[in-house]
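Q: I'm writing up a methods section and want to include an example of the input and output format. Could you take the sequence below and give the corresponding predicted structure tokens, formatted cleanly so I can copy it straight into the document?
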Amino acid sequence: MGTDGLWARLRGGAKGVVLGVMDSATGLLWPPVGVGDEGEAAWEALFARAKQAGLDLDGLRGVTSDGATGLGRYLVRGLWWVNHQRCVWHVWRQLGGEVRARAAAAAVGLVGAAATARRRQAQRELGGLVRAALDAASAAAAQQALASLAAHPLGARLAALVAAELDALRIYRGSFNCGLLRVGPAWYWRDFRLRLSHGRNHGSSARLERAALVWAIARNFTPAQRRSERKRHYRAPGQSPLQRAGLAPEGISYLDALAV
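A: Here is the clean output for your methods example:
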């Protein structure tokens, strides 16, 4: 499974967040919840609602997320058997700033084309070493790449940052978590924001949650586009998430589901 949250501004300057959980294999969305923060209680409410909707929490083995601390605390306390995979995309966003900073330090004292060439070379070297550690096929290869990064004249701090997240970034490699994605499902909020309300203009937390629930039902029943776009490809053209999960709607539309 994958989890993520979408923040929105409400009336009076308040903020709310919609939390969702998705089946990584089929794209099936479980009922989201609208809450005021991403604390431990909010994630507990999300998984309680998913269980009420039919999710077998006892059979859940892995969850991918951006590393929300509230989710981590809840998993340790309430779902201790579930492994927590860190989203590699979010980690790369954090490491990217450090790579650029170290590359800029390498070019100190140089000007013009020489500075640009040195900075780019340092970025390629450091980025390659970080990628080798994150994408290694085995734990031994990951540790070897991490040692090479630490030995680089500019890589000591980067190596420490990678080492702190390395185990959590490699959960998907375990045989117990075969099929677990290494990237969180932040992209699925794109469809929510493309609705007429733009996914954010709801005023209150209750209305925000209601809009998210309607959207989740519509998305589960809607077949994926058959024709791929220039920058977007569909893994199961013409099939809805319910069909991929083996629960074909059999002519029932999402409007029928809303009526129920």
